[in-house]
Write a structure and sequence with these properties.
Elements (H helix, E strand, L loop, with lengths): L10 E8 L4 E8 L5 E8 L5 E6 L5 H14 L4 E5 L5 H11 L6 H25 L3 E5 L2 H7 L10
Parallel strand pairs: 4-6, 5-6
Antiparallel strand pairs: 1-2, 2-3, 3-4
Bound molecules: adenosine-5'-diphosphate and thymidine-5'-diphosphate.
The site of thymidine-5'-diphosphate (TYD) has 12 residues, from helix 1 and helix 4.
GO molecular function: ATP binding; dTMP kinase activity
Keywords: ATP-binding, Kinase, Nucleotide biosynthesis, Nucleotide-binding, Transferase
EC number: 2.7.4.9
């Protein structure tokens, strides 16, 4: 575990599990940012996939940008992605989703899923395949939290 090149001195690894295939997934809690989580996937010979999740205003974007800068400063290649966003479709759907137009929960879920599918295909997967680290500001945890819980949530 000490060989993982994430350079986060205040990062406490709280769990690790083997993924299907070659990956190991680590779940980390950042201190003192107690309201966000940072999830790291390590794939042999591929980039790290590092996800920040948390409520609005909890500090995800700030910490994701700090980590990106730190990785770059340490000589690692890394890119930052944001959900929904980053791709042309993601940015388009972000505007639509923020526009407060009437949407069923199912439609909302599918629009977030469409933005993610495009992001994975266009950016996340090819970048990781090239051995470049990806830092993500939100990912599937947001969908589980926002569309998958609470009253009237969508069954997933
Ligand atoms: N560790 C921190 N300590 C204090 N303030 C912070 C910290 N991280 C972020 N902030 C501030 O909190 C606010 C929300 O941060 P932001 O990164 O935009 O959150 P999010 O992306 O989760 O919405 C910003 O004003 C930011 O400067
Ligand atoms: C990725 C994702 C985001 N969201 C929501 C959470 C946020 O309210 C919004 C994204 O807005 P954003 O401005 O990125 O949030 P933040 O203030 O945390 O930076 O979309 C979902 O409901 N489902 C999802 O799958």
């Amino acid at each position: 575990m000490s060989k993982i090149p994430i350079g986060l001195p205040r990062c406490a690894i709280i769990s690790a599990r083997k993924q299907e295939g070659s990956g190991i997934q680590l779940c980390a809690a950042l201190w003192p940012c107690q309201h966000i989580t940072c999830e790291i996937e390590l794939f042999v010979d591929k980039g790290l996939f590092i996800v920040f999740e948390g409520g609005e205003g909890s500090g995800k974007s700030t910490q994701a940008e700090c980590l990106l800068q730190r990785l770059l400063d340490a000589g690692h290649q890394a890119v930052l992605v944001r959900e929904p966003g980053t791709t042309t479709l993601g940015l388009y759907l972000r505007e639509y989703l923020k526009s407060k137009r009437p949407l069923t929960l199912e439609s909302e879920l599918l629009l977030f899923a469409a933005a993610r599918a495009q992001l994975v295909a266009e950016e996340i997967r090819p970048t990781l395949e090239r051995g470049i680290n990806v830092v993500a500001d939100r990912y599937t945890g947001s969908t589980v939290a926002y569309q998958g819980s609470g009253e009237g949530s969508v069954a997933m």
